[in-house]
Design brief:
This protein is of the alpha+beta class. The protein has five helices and four strands, in the order αααααββββ. The protein has one domain: Roll (Nuclear Transport Factor 2, Chain: A), CATH 3.10.450. The chain is 29% helix and 31% strand. It starts with a helix and ends with a strand. The model has no long low-confidence stretch (mean pLDDT 93). It binds zinc ion. The site of zinc ion has 7 residues, from helix 3.
């Protein structure tokens, strides 16, 4: 684990909530808590990118192409080359505690290769196996 992660546990969560990391996305990354809403999962995935929590990114996106080993490698490279500066959730549709599916539209500002860029995505989330008891998972971008 990177030392920066341990130090930042009591700092503000990278997802932009007003909470500390250990009261926000940290327990989700550690598997101590599950996301209640699709937005929470989306925020925790953003923080996971910012903190290079590669395993969390893999388990919350089980349908991604490639083997776990390939994805682990790609995500590590991507996390090393990208600095995440902020997240703005623009809109959510369903994805609540009683829903099986939902979308979250967001903007994330990052820099890579010396240039600052904005990723805007409308993401689809679904509960595992479409079951009300399943945890929220990232499926794919819609546009
Ligand atoms: Zn957070």
């Amino acid at each position: 684990m990177a030392s920066g992660f341990a130090k930042s546990l009591t700092g503000p969560c990278p997802c932009g909530s007003d909470c500390k990391l250990d009261q926000c996305c940290g327990p989700l990354h550690a598997g101590r808590r599950r996301a209640v809403t699709a937005e929470q999962l989306m925020r925790s995935r953003y923080s996971a990118y910012a903190l290079a929590q590669v395993e969390y990114l893999i388990v919350t996106h089980p349908d991604a192409a490639g083997t776990s080993a390939e994805r682990r490698h790609e995500l590590r490279v991507s996390c090393r080359q990208t600095r995440w500066h902020g997240l703005k959730v623009l809109a959510t549709n369903d994805g609540g505690s009683d829903d099986l599916e939902g979308t979250v539209c967001f903007e994330a500002v990052f820099s890579a290769g010396g240039s600052r860029q904005v990723l805007r995505e409308n993401s689809l989330f679904r509960r595992r196996d479409g079951q009300a008891t399943g945890e929220w998972l990232y499926v794919r971008p819609l546009d």
